[in-house]
Amino acid sequence: MTARNRQWLLKSRPAHALSLEHFAYREQAFQAPHLDAGQVLVRNLAFSCAPTIRNWMNAADRSYRAPIGIGEPIFGPACAQVVRSEHPRFAPGSLLIGVSRWEDYSVIEPDQAFAPVLSVPEGMMPTDALGLYGLNSLTAYFGLLKIGRPQPGETVVISAAAGAVGSMVVQLAKLNGCRAIGIAGGRQKCTWLLQACRADGAIDYKSDDVAAALTGLAPHGVNVFFDNVGGELLQILVEHMAVHGRIVVCGQVSAYDSDLPAPGPRDMMRVVYGRLSIQGFVLGDFLDEADAARADLVRWFGEGKLQRHEDVRAGFDVLPTAFLELFSGGNRGALLVTIAAGA
Question: Which of 50-59, 78-87, 299-308 has the lowest mean pLDDT?
């Protein structure tokens, strides 16, 4: 098999804000390689623009995974079709989701991957597998339900609530009988959270006094804080947690474009006297439960208890510009880019 393989590479490592100058395009002939046992050759169909990719662009001492190498393809969540396989779980022609490189053809080693590689049920569209039922939704599911452990009637606050993970957390909190308060940037996103995601409250961190808004919306304190951002929002939320509150640390977007480590709470005595728990997690912690979780999401959507919120762009050429919109506030829900016909 000989084909053209388009790639988006990391041209240089960003010290601060990411821009188009940090990406480079390459196209070259692709000859299907020999596969070793456990390897799978895939044709990538669609990519999810996930904020954590920005962290992987940092130097090794700033990235908590092996960083993307200079001159190497960007990698991130993808839905792909298996072309050839030396792995017993993935047959040629089937679909999978996992972390793949920003290119047309990639070799994946599912058993060695740092993020789960999951089979896609037959008949499920690639954008559904990557969006509504994808890694971001599973991250929201496990982070909230397993780490946050919300109880009916409790108040759940979500930062970056208009993003792929955050918007799903809002819906799952409501589904579990909780009050859901989203924090997002801009009035339009806040209105979208209230109307489309059925949030009980929305705070615009760009123009609202977040602390004052929390006092009004959660006068008895916050029981669960799902933190995608960190930084000053984390500081404020620590001061507004109810006794025995749980802080779920999913991401630290505020630190990705910084050359400083992500800061923790300034006053740990608030954690002591509030008897707070602060726990981070990664999706791989729950790999054995992923199929059951996805079945829940499929059922809830079928019952009308979940709404799909996806921003789908088309074209391999738009990948870098679409990704940058995550940091300028240009998307709502999961931001997906399809690169192949039929995706």
Answer: 50-59
